[in-house]
Amino acid sequence: MSRFGRETTAEAVSRSADLRGCRAVLTGASSGIGVETARALAIAGADVVLGVRNVEAGVTVAQKIAADGGREVRVLALDLRDLASVTDFASGIQGPVGLLIANAGVSWTPEAHLPNGLDVRFATNHLGHFLLALRLRAQLAERGARIVVVSSAAHKGARVHLDDLQWHQREHHPGMAYAESKTANILFAQEATRRWSADGIFANAVLPGSALTGLQRFHSDELKRQIGFVLPDGSPNPMLKSVAQAAATTVWAATATELERRGGLVLEDCAEAITVRPDTHPWSGYDPEVADAATARRLWDASIQLLHALGVDV
């Protein structure tokens, strides 16, 4: 049983870990949970590479980590919505990769679809990370690696619609599109482990818990109230995690000895997530009904086919 829990911070987890000699690739680390994750990995001794859309903000994060006594952090441009950017980013990673942390994500954005027809949430949260993992597979296998995919409690009840992954046939709903992309994250972790564990690669999905971060930058005040992040008087819900607490399970998934050569799991509060019950709080728990093995295989195959249709050689 883990000695950490819901109140644990990412730094507290990192203080008990040793990642010296491990190259860690982390997406979406210019704000929020990603910043705390990057700092914790550096504290543990990892050679951290940040993939960020806003390079200037990423450099600021890297400088702050170094100034606080962490290791030097490398920053590279990465726009997960742009498959050419993903390929360019991957080509800039040299040598073995011990950790790939798929942290970047978007939720309610002004955009619905990209010019190539992809739903922006599916493209950013799933497909870009999927391609990045494919591009780095050989490097992940060199010494055996962990992949950590940041999902969300929003996945509950949100089966992916394999016949309409891009929301072309249904009335588009950004909240449900986000939820389905978070289910896709779980399905990817399951199928990556099934396909790649023989190469020493194991993937797990993380439910970070609810925290106010840049992910909600396009959430209206009314939406935040509906979700419960903000109380009727406008103050933050005291049940929210801090950003440092929300990053803890990612760092635990990356470092915990009890997870050695284990994959396909859903993790929460530095432990395996509980299965949802009727009385489970909406912000927590794992819904296995949306993530069966057959759907995981079909989503993988559909993602490969989609990349081919978009002219990406995989």
Number of helical runs? 10
Contiguous runs where pLDDT drops below 50 for at least 5 residues: none
Percent in strands = 5-15%
How much is the radius of gyration in Å? 18 Å
> For the residues shown, what is the average pLDDT?
91
Helix residue percentage? 25-40%
- The strand order across the widest sheet is 3-2-1-4-5-6-7-8
Oligomer: single chain
Shape: globular
Instruction: Give the SSE order as H and E letters.
Output: HEHEHEHEHEHEHHHEEH
Question: What's this entry about, in short?
Answer:
This protein is an alpha/beta fold. The chain has helices at 10-14, 32-43, 55-67, 83-91, 120-141, 174-196, 221-227, 243-246, 248-255, 293-309, and strands spanning 23-27, 47-52, 74-77, 99-102, 145-150, 201-207, 266-268, 271-272.
Describe the overall structure.
Helices cover 38% and strands 12% of the residues. It is an alpha/beta fold and 314 residues long. Helix 4 (83-91) packs parallel to helix 5 (120-141) and helix 6 packs across helix 10. The longest helix is centred in the middle third of the chain and has 23 residues, at 174-196. The N and C termini lie far apart (39 Å).
